[in-house]
Write a structure and sequence with these properties.
Blueprint: E1 16-25, H1 31-42, E2 62-69, E3 72-79, H2 89-92, E4 98-104, H3 109-126, E5 130-135, H4 145-152, E6 160-162, H5 171-181
Parallel strand pairs: 1-3, 1-4, 4-5, 5-6
Antiparallel strand pairs: 2-3
The structure holds guanosine-5'-triphosphate and magnesium ion.
Guanosine-5'-triphosphate is lined by residues 25, 27-33, 53-54, 56, 58-59, 80-82, 135-136, 138-139, 164-166.
């Protein structure tokens, strides 16, 4: 096992491959954009504002993003957030080791209700460690991560990180945080 600061607890080199992580959240919360940004940030191709807001095209079912990072090959499974795909989610979450819950921080009542349901699912059914991304922090109407945590009733032990899939704000931090709370995996780098 590797701890968060990268120190080995045993002499055995850690080789972890194909760690399956979920990208969950209501339709339009920013999962596709986050998946693409994370791929380019980890590949060090990302510059601020490189990703422009794009026309929203809902993901038809499921999408994948490969994030090779040191000895960890994370595969993000985006579960399309539109209502019609939800009956299929349970076919896709099997074998996942962790998850991101993206919340659109402009927080309409519909977003809040949907995010609460996904939160419950993550805690009671999928049962993996997860990080909440209070996304779209670049928008003036966005609520702060603390406000999102309060509205959703999120306990203190669950990380809630303010992110923007457009500017890249804290996207890498959220990725490292998730790796650090998954048993047996640790991140070795800090966000720059
Ligand atoms: N301002 C801003 N817009 C964002 C952000 N993330 C995504 N968007 C925009 O929000 C819309 C929806 O983004 P997507 O990434 O497609 O949302 P999604 O969660 O994948 O949606 P589904 O596939 O339907 O579940 C797009 O128009 C994006 O450009 C963000 O952090 N800030
Ligand atoms: Mg999508």
């Amino acid at each position: 096992m590797i701890s968060v600061n990268g120190s080995h607890k045993s002499n055995t080199p850690l080789i972890v491959s194909n760690v399956k992580l979920l990208l969950m959240g209501s339709g339009g919360s920013g999962k596709t954009t986050m998946g693409k940004v994370l791929e380019s940030i980890i590949a060090e191709e990302f510059e601020n504002n490189l990703i422009a807001c794009h026309e929203y095209k809902p993901t038809p079912g499921v999408a994948f993003y490969k994030i090779p990072f040191e000895n960890i090959h994370a595969i993000l499974w985006e579960l399309g957030g539109q209502k019609r795909y939800r009956p299929l989610w349970n076919l896709w979450w099997a074998g996942s080791k962790g998850a991101f819950l993206l919340v659109d921080s402009t927080a309409s009542s519909q977003i809040i209700e949907e995010s609460k349901l996904i939160l419950k699912l993550l805690k009671e059914t999928i049962n993996v460690p997860f990080v909440v991304c209070a996304n779209k922090q670049d928008l003036p109407a966005a609520l702060k991560p603390e406000e999102i945590a309060k509205i959703l009733g999120i306990e203190n032990n669950i990380p809630v990180i303010g992110t923007s899939s457009i500017t890249g704000l804290n996207v890498k931090t959220a990725f490292y945080k998730l790796l650090s709370i998954i048993d047996g995996i640790g991140s070795r780098k800090n966000d720059s």
